[in-house]
Amino acid sequence: MLTINADRLWRTLMRSAEIGPGVAGGLKRLTLTPEDGEVRDQLKAWAAEDGFAVTVDGAGNMFVRMEGASDGPPVLIGSHLDTQVTGGRFDGILGVLGGLEVLRTLKDLGHVPKRPIEVVNWTNEEGARFSPPMMASAVFCGVETLDWLYDRVDDDGVRLLDALEAIGYRGEAPVGKPVDAYFELHIEQAPELYDEGIDIGVVTAGYAVRGLLIRFTGETAHTGPTPMDRRKNAIIGASYGAVATNEVGHAYAPLGKATASRLVAWPNKPGILSSFAELTVDVRHPETEAADRMRDEILARIAEGAEKAKVKWEVVSTWTYGEERFDPALVDLYRQAAKGLGLSQKDMMSQAGHDAYYMSRVAPTAILFSPCIDGITHNEAEDITPAHATNATNVLLNAVVARADRD
Amino acid sequence: MLTINADRLWRTLMRSAEIGPGVAGGLKRLTLTPEDGEVRDQLKAWAAEDGFAVTVDGAGNMFVRMEGASDGPPVLIGSHLDTQVTGGRFDGILGVLGGLEVLRTLKDLGHVPKRPIEVVNWTNEEGARFSPPMMASAVFCGVETLDWLYDRVDDDGVRLLDALEAIGYRGEAPVGKPVDAYFELHIEQAPELYDEGIDIGVVTAGYAVRGLLIRFTGETAHTGPTPMDRRKNAIIGASYGAVATNEVGHAYAPLGKATASRLVAWPNKPGILSSFAELTVDVRHPETEAADRMRDEILARIAEGAEKAKVKWEVVSTWTYGEERFDPALVDLYRQAAKGLGLSQKDMMSQAGHDAYYMSRVAPTAILFSPCIDGITHNEAEDITPAHATNATNVLLNAVVARADRD
């Protein structure tokens, strides 16, 4: 079995961890900010050191290329370098820099793969600055258009295209191209592997995700004299919805999860009832039918809460993903690689969203998980050990090479 | 009985309604904005037309003065010209412009009062841009310091002193001076007078108000894989608190009222659990003991909700006002004036906060209410009829003159 340069991988991860530091040991490297520009420049510099060409497409996706013995669609490895506001040092980052380490190792070994191998850094996987998440892989896969992506606006009113041009990463390449296969290494973002002491998670499928953006409409009025039975406070409608979401999540635990992740109101000031509120609801379950049932129960309870609050409500946007089943051949490459390296492994489902979900629509795709300590993620305390990074990247290396070198 | 020029009063109110128009027929004239500067300039121009001197104090409070036959502390009439984000055309405004009409009428009549009469426009009664409300009358009455007022900051990070200087209304006069008595005319902001068809409300006391700012502290984590039983989402803690506040309000209705008026969270984004939230709670009841009991029940339920949400919570700020009892002699002047004018009247309590609450600590004070249609206020649909304005201002006129001319 091939093995990577573990020290080099860890040094590379730690160098990334210096770019866009948070306040508590993690990262705040929101997409298309100057910090994101800086880590992109660093990735380009690393590629240049080894003579790997870098292509940037119109959505800012970056492709680091190792040529193969023959041309043709590349084997693609990827993830993302952007983070949440309170992000960790490994979420997404391990996938990109682990991919870079695969190329570096092959170069060290003088191993020219039969097919080209590329490593992609997807723009805005997190959706923390521009919503929704996984936006640029969605365009790459034809799920959304490039104009739609350019028109997304952040909470400060900045248009995505302007932010992309400001950091100099609106590339010339068209968005989307044929790909032989897509491999994604990611930290698990749940405590299962870590709690059970297992080295590698082989992801066979995703949790069904149901997203809802609910809008509540009430009426402004004075917080003092307005009789309780004449009030239409949108904050109360949204709060009933948040509580219902959480309680349905608990009712379906441990498999089901439901989150009220965002609640905004207007005018949202002391002295006045709010006429407007929005609630973002996120439902996940390994079984599609159960996810749909959770969503329907939440909607029924939102209707009850809105009636109590005397506010109108409507679902203004929905999103659905995660029911992908990954490519059995690629899944088996991970299993064989882990077995060959003597690592413990288990099959699992991904609960978080990943760019691989969209990629599975256009190419054979599979995700590989490494443990993360206590399952903590989207938090600056997110952490892994060098051994976690090494083991998973060794599996990635052998699986990718097996794919790239097949007849 | 003396009577005002009703047409002139209405024209003056309608001129004010042109300054800082909202989007639905009301006003958006937040304190210390250019629109507030414009209406202040208009008040100064109106005063100049009739030769009334205008003094501005260090907090931006404006005093329009009619000299009396003798000097000494003035009889003061006042309210405010600032509005909520979705404000009406009469809330506060009727009190200031009704006061101006009192001065104009006395000038028309050649009636020189024994004591000087002044009309005050208090800075930032609403608290909609800079919190808390009734800030400048609090400083006038020695409840807060002027430096404290200057240091308040709006949601855009603008310091109050800078906003005050930007519109040119940081005056030279010291904040606070002896006052013979304080009269405030205000729309009721509740539907009682309007529903019962009564012309005049004589305010004898205020509702006890208990304000709370609660902070919830949780932990950021991923909305997807994080197990339900490991979540500490501050939005859920705050939402339980908002629901509890509303339900306690309903349990104590119709006398008691409780409002969740503001709910903010951070990061408050899709994909992540929020580590921070704040909830503003406003409790009102005519009986002090019941207001305290409502507050305590809400706090107990907030503790339960925080436990379910696994978040920490603390009360970071509290405020208390409204238990003032108004001056019996002034209250009786309103009653006698209404009776003399043949208007129907009833004694009532004020549920909203007013600058009169603070003024009652330093001078004999009483508030007069006029009906507002359907009790709608802090809403652009707020409305009154010309007759409502005329009747109430006639009562104000006769009560003020009786006070100013007493031996």
UniProtKB/TrEMBL annotation, chains A, B:
- What cofactor(s) does the depicted protein rely on? Zn(2+)
> Which residues of the sequence carry a binding annotation for Zn(2+) 1?
H80, D91, H186
| Chain sites annotated for binding Zn(2+) 2 | D91, E126, H378
UniProt KW keywords: Hydrolase, Metal-binding, Zinc
Tell me what organism the protein belongs to: Acuticoccus mangrovi
Q: Which CDD domains match?
A: M20_bAS (cd03884)
Q: Tell me the cofactor note.
A: Binds 2 Zn(2+) ions per subunit.
Q: What is this protein called?
A: Zn-dependent hydrolase
A GO molecular function for this record?
metal ion binding
- Pfam families documented for this protein: Peptidase_M20 (PF01546)
Q: Which NCBIfam families match?
A: hydantase, PRK09290.1-3
Q: What family does the entry list?
A: Belongs to the peptidase M20 family.
